[in-house]
Write a structure and sequence with these properties.
It comes from Nonomuraea endophytica. GO terms for molecular function: transferase activity. By secondary structure, the chain is of the alpha/beta class. The chain has one domain (about 5-225): Spore Coat Polysaccharide Biosynthesis Protein SpsA, Chain A. The chain is built from eight helices and nine strands. The strands form two sheets. A seven-stranded mixed sheet has the order 3-2-1-4-7-5-8, with helices on both faces. A two-stranded parallel sheet has the order 6-9. It starts with 6 loop residues before the first strand and ends in an 18-residue tail after the last helix.
C-alpha cells in the first residue's frame, strides 16, 4: 500500500511477551513506526519486542493504567496517523488498512466497532456486552452521537487532532473519553467493522464492574462540563456517525 501519510502504531503492553510474536506478525509491512509502551513488565516483553522489530521505539510508562500508557505513546508518535491496538492478540493488525482507508477518505477519527456488519467478537461476555450497550446508549442520548460500540479500544486518528481531544485519564475509560471528546470537538468519526479475538495468553486486566463504573463516571463528568451537543452527521456514508 502506497500512502501519502505516515503511520504509527501504538501498543501498550505489560507482561505480554508470549503474545507479542502473534501481534507483531499481523502488522502490515507498510506501517512506518511501532511504539511499544511498556508498563514496567516483569517478563521479557521489551526484549521480545525488540527482537521481533529492531526498529521498535520503546516508551517506558511512568504512571499506571491503559490510558496513561496510550497518552505516553501518542506523545512519542511521529506519524501523521496514529493507530492504537492491544498487545494481547484481541485486535488484529491486518485490519489496520480499513482504519487507514477511512481516514484517507475523509474521516478524522476511525472508530472500531464489533456491532456493525462485518464486525464481531469471540471474547466479549454477556455481562460486558450488556454493559457496553447500556453505556453506548447513554452516550448517544447525552451527546447526540450514533455510536454502536463505545467500549472498544481499536481506533485510529490523525495525529493533528490530539490537542482537540486533550486526553487526561489513566484507565480503560480512555476509549470512552476519546469517543466523547472527538465528537464534542466536531471531528468527523467513522465506525469501522472489527472482529475482537480472544486473548491468546495470560489474563486480562479488565474488570467489568470496576471499569464500567469508571466509564460511567467519565460520561457524566464530561457532560457536566457543559460541552455542546455534537454537530450534525456528515455525509461520509452509512458509517459516518458524527
Amino acid at each position: 500500500m502506497k500512502l501519502s501519510a505516515s503511520i504509527t502504531v501504538v501498543v501498550p503492553a505489560m507482561n505480554e511477551a508470549e503474545n507479542l510474536p502473534h501481534v507483531f506478525a499481523t502488522l502490515p509491512s507498510w506501517i512506518d513506526e511501532v511504539i511499544l509502551v511498556d508498563g514496567n513488565s516483569t517478563d521479557d516483553t521489551v526484549a521480545v519486542a525488540r527482537r521481533l522489530r529492531p526498529d521498535l521505539h520503546v516508551v517506558t510508562q511512568t504512571g499506571r493504567g491503559k490510558g496513561n500508557a496510550l497518552i505516553a505513546g501518542f506523545a512519542a508518535a511521529k506519524g501523521d496517523i496514529i493507530v492504537m491496538i492491544d498487545a494481547d492478540g484481541s485486535t488484529d493488525g491486518r485490519e489496520i488498512g480499513l482504519f487507514v482507508e477511512a481516514l484517507i477518505e475523509g474521516a478524522d477519527f476511525a472508530k472500531g466497532s464489533r456491532y456493525v456488519p462485518g464486525g464481531g467478537s469471540s471474547d466479549i461476555s454477556v455481562v460486558r456486552s450488556f454493559g457496553n450497550r447500556v453505556l453506548t446508549g447513554l452516550t448517544n442520548m447525552l451527546y447526540g452521537t450514533r455510536y454502536t460500540d463505545l467500549c472498544y479500544g481499536y481506533n485510529a486518528f490523525w495525529a493533528r487532532h490530539l490537542d482537540a481531544m486533550a486526553l487526561d485519564c489513566d484507565g480503560f475509560e480512555i476509549e470512552t473519553l476519546m469517543n466523547v471528546r472527538a465528537s464534542q470537538a466536531g471531528l468527523l468519526i467513522q465506525e469501522v467493522p472489527s472482529h475482537e479475538h480472544c486473548r491468546i495468553h495470560g489474563e486480562s486486566n479488565l474488570h467489568a464492574v470496576r471499569d464500567g463504573w469508571r466509564v460511567l463516571k467519565t460520561i457524566l463528568r464530561e457532560r457536566n462540563r457543559g460541552l455542546v451537543a455534537a454537530p450534525a452527521p456528515s455525509s461520509l456514508g452509512s458509517c459516518a456517525i458524527s
